[in-house]
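Please review this pair:
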Amino acid sequence: MSHEAPVIGVLALQGDVREHLIALAAADAVARPVRRPEELAEVDGLVIPGGESTTISKLAVLFGVMEPLRARVRAGMPVYGTCAGMILLADKILDPRSGQETVGGIDMIVRRNAFGRQNESFEAALAVHGIAGDPVEGVFIRAPWVESVGAETEVLAEHEGHIVAVRQGNALATSFHPELTGDHRMHALFVDMVRANRVTDSL
């Protein structure tokens, strides 16, 4: 295993960027904000944070980062999307907003704001496949859920019968915000994915 910490970017166009940078640093990664294609080119992996998925997708196009991001995800760069980031990693969105594009990378159909406006925020203890120990405290804020997944997509967690965490290859996505709880195990899982990918790349 490489002793050098992986460099992981956080797409810094909108959303809770600072909290992800802190969580990644706590999970032994070098974390940096990414807004432009040249910054994307310098990272080993990328987190797409929560925020407003339509706004993030439009800004990604505006900043010229959408196409290079799609290309790198297709080429196998590890990527982790939380909440709005999960929507952006979906190959298909139910009822997308006009002009909304996705990065893709996970064979799933996502429903936006699925947990409803009426309970806009809530917390739930989740058993997440691949995370040992106590349940993960999931913070859901106008969160999406995964309506269905393809054969290659692994379901990591469910809440009340709805899929809220998935992984497909080097792509990871959660409906919830692990960066808001002080529990860095989801970020550590992603850092491990990035490390493993770097070892594979160097072989």
About this structure: The chain has a mean pLDDT of 93. Residues 185-202 form the longest helix (18 residues). The chain has six helices and twelve strands.
